[in-house]
Structure formats: structure tokens, C-alpha cells
Design brief:
The chain is an all-alpha fold. About 60% of the residues lie in helices and about 0% in strands. Among the domains are: about 45 residues, Arc Repressor Mutant, subunit A, CATH 1.10.10; about 130 residues, Tetracycline Repressor, domain 2. The radius of gyration is 23 Å and the shape is flat. The N terminus and C terminus are likely disordered.
Amino acid sequence: MATEIDVSAQPRVPLSRERVLRAAVALADQGGVESLSMRKIAQELGVVPMALYKHLSNKDEMLDGMVDVVVGEINDVVSEIDVRSGDWKTAMRQRVLSAREILLRHPWAPRLMESRTNVSPAMLRYFDSLIGLLREAGFSIDLTHHAMHALGSRAVGFTQELYDDSEEFDSEAMAMFLQQMGGEYPHITEMVMEISHDDDTTLGWCDDQVEFEFALDVILDGLERLRDTPSHRTAQDDTNGPGRAS
């Protein structure tokens, strides 16, 4: 004989900081960070808004925590990348593109990362792993420093253009512009007529995956060339001396 299950008697999953943050991330994935409110998050979790403040003191703490959740996902993925082969460039490329893949799932995250003033342990852990990869590959402290500046936000999988809020590309307006001004700007006209950015799998209208990987490869190839020059290959790291200016 079948026994009815009393749903009300089932244990409730306790509210926690992680549950609140993951609910906030999920809602941001649907409607962006601007649409978030403590009330909406509480409704999603089936609790009263005041219950959230036991785990997060304010919205700023929530936003910092949301960045932590996303970077935590990145750390989980890159920790599985095998670097024992000694091919630092392949490993670095895989890490950066894996980070980018995570951000493509959370298109609101790049702008939020740029807006935060606190550097979280999760972000520090990610950058520490990248620096360690370069050091183990034979990069000097000085060249590693320059490498991190060259990569910039690209190291985390995005560039500033990825969250450009420009209006949707108007092909008719561009065609009219080229017809009127093409003679004055021949090189721009030539490029725009030849190249079309119509990939919808990006975080911005004019920075598709091909362009991102192209620039990343240019940087990594250049760094490898510099690492293998005699001046950098034989340089001694002066870890106690004054740092080189950026």
C-alpha cells in the first residue's frame, strides 16, 4: 500500500551565505545585476528579506560575494588543467580561455569585477596560480611583472570592450555613413566592408572569440620570445632590491 509523503515534514535546506550568493548569481544571469534586490533574492529563496541580513550585511557585501562565486568557478576549472607537461603557453592559454568560458555564462560579471575595490582571496588565488606558472616556466620576476600588466583583465577572460554598452549595430546606418564618408576614411571603410562582427556568443558587440584568442596568442608568443632572449634568460632576480617601475 502506497504511503503518502507529508511534504511539509521534509527538512528545509538551511539558509546560508553560499545559498544567498548563488541565488543572487542565478538572478543576475537572468536579468543582470541592476535588476537585483534583497527582496527578489528573498522571494527566490522563500524567506523574508530580513533573513538575508544574517548572512550579508548589505548589498555591497553581496556584490563582492557574487564576484567570489564566479571566480571560485574559474578556480575550480583551472585547477583541473594539467601543467605537468611543461608547456606553459598552452597551460596559460587554457586557463585564460577557461576563465572566459565561465564569464560567458555570467555576462554581467566583467563589469562587476571592474567596479569592486576589494580584491578577494579567490581572485588572489587565481592570479597567484598564473604568476606561479610563469615563474616555473623560467620567467624572471621582472618579466613576470610585465607579463601580468600585458595580460591585464584578459588574464581573467575579458577585456574592457567586452562590456561596452554601445547601441546595437545598425547596418543600414553604417552603409549610409560609408556612402557619405567613405572617401574621407578609406582605410576604415575598407575594413568595415570586409569584416563583419556578427557572432552572438560574445560579451560585447565587437569583440568575438576569434579576436580575443588572436590578441591572447600575440601576447603569449611575444612573452615566450622575450623569455628566451639572453638578457631575460640569464637575468638574476633581485627580490630584495627596488622594484622596476611599471
